[in-house]
Amino acid sequence: MASAPVSAASIRALIAEEMPQLVAIRHDLHAHPELGYEERRTSAVVQRELTKAGVAFKADLAGGTGVLGHLPGRTPRAVGLRADMDALPIEEQSELPYRSTTPGTMHACGHDGHTTILLGAARVLARLAKSNPLPHPVSFLFQPAEEGGGGGKRMVEDGCLDGRVIGPPVERIFGLHGWPEYPLGVVGTRVGPLLAASDRFEIVVTGVGGHAAWPHACRDPVVAASAIVQAVQTIASRSVGPLDAVVVSITMIDAGSGFNIIPSSAIIRGTARTLSATVQQLVMRRLKEITTSVATAYGCSAELDYRINYPVTLNHAGAVAQFNRVAEESLGSERLRPVEQPVMGGEDFAFYGQQIPACFFVLGLVPAGRSAMPALHHPSFDFTDDAMATGVEMFVRLALSDPAQSDSAQSDSAQSDSA
């Protein structure tokens, strides 16, 4: 016999009891950031807290630091909840009492908040499970290396979705990201592409080095590289249609060893962001054509190494319908703000969505009384503690909700639209 639904008041009371400890955990994680695949201390904190909550888990995943927690439930397939754990190679610029103690590394993207929110959801759901079996099994994915390392892909490869590690296969998965563009306590998402495919490239320009006083005797790769940097800007302005989203950014140039030496080579590195495979292929082709031709025009040669990295983060219509229903029931329609347009940032949550229905959503961070806060990847960014209660509530309610309700409503809506 199915147990009565857990009331919103009961869930919020449990979250309120957990919040002081969750704030302490996040501050501890913020003070001890670790880069991708180096999250050994963070992984140990996750394992410690899951053990205290009575949540079974398997560790040493995705290269050694990933953790998959699990709570049993009544149905044969699980709900997945995911958080990323890694920090960024940025020197923190703040006077917070819990600022980073690791030189050159900080949680500038809020993964300390994401990890703590998922721990909070695990703790609340574990407490609820002591009274009544959960309606669905829940798998908690604590993954490493979102910031370019593809930790999500390795979690999938290690069997975190298909039931090979612990618990049954995951039927549907949800993830979140703190959002400095939304007010505190507001959440949102959209059907289809939410975040872009995130690729990276390296261009090696080779010339003939020599004395800076005799440039005519050289083939200057710095000049050629400078021209390439300018020329690739035309991919967005002249090669891709104005209604198709694309970003091509040069972020690094490395050349030379002395003020009076023309080097023999220069290296250009950057990223390309697209929302469709067609545009992605066009960008790859135009980068090759431009770099080769421009280098030749300057008497040099160029080699392009283009690496397809993260796919587009695509949100499943049924999973989004479930998220929207839960958000309206839990938070009210005034705190649900749809994301109108895709964002050109990349996310390795996309790898989960390639396997099963997925919904990635954003969680507002801007504190009351403020109109703005430092952006993601800024050296003074800090995840807003008060946002964690909303994040935990959404994860808990999503884990407890019935996906069939939303799928049925989505199907009815589609049939109505086609009638």
Which short descriptors sum up this protein?
419 residues, elongated, 11 helices, 36% helix, single chain
Topology:
Elements: H1 8-31, H2 40-53, E1 56-61, E2 66-71, E3 78-84, H3 111-129, E4 138-143, H4 151-157, E5 170-183, E6 187-188, E7 192-195, E8 197-206, E9 210-211, H5 221-231, H6 234-239, E10 246-255, E11 261-262, E12 265-274, H7 277-297, E13 301-310, E14 313-315, H8 317-331, H9 350-353, E15 358-366, H10 387-400, H11 403-418
Parallel strand pairs: 3-4, 3-5, 5-15
Antiparallel strand pairs: 1-2, 2-4, 6-15, 7-14, 8-12, 8-13, 9-11, 10-12
Helix pairs in contact: 1-3, 1-10, 2-3, 3-10, 5-7, 8-10, 8-11
Folded structure, characterized:
With 419 residues, the chain is an alpha+beta fold. The protein is 36% helix and 24% strand. Strand 3, helix 3 and strand 4 (138-143) form a beta-alpha-beta unit. The mean pLDDT is 95.
In DSSP terms (H or I, runs of 4 or more residues), the helix count works out at 11
User: From the alpha-carbon coordinates, what is the Rg to the nearest angstrom?
Assistant: 24 Å
Largest sheet data: 7 strands, mixed
Share of helical residues: 25-40%
Shape: elongated
Order of helices and strands: HHEEEHEHEEEEEHHEEEHEEHHEHH
Poorly predicted regions: none
**Average of the residue pLDDT scores:** 95
What structural category arises from helix and sheet content? alpha+beta
- List how many beta strands DSSP finds: 15
Sheet with the most strands: spatial strand order: 1-2-4-3-5-15-6
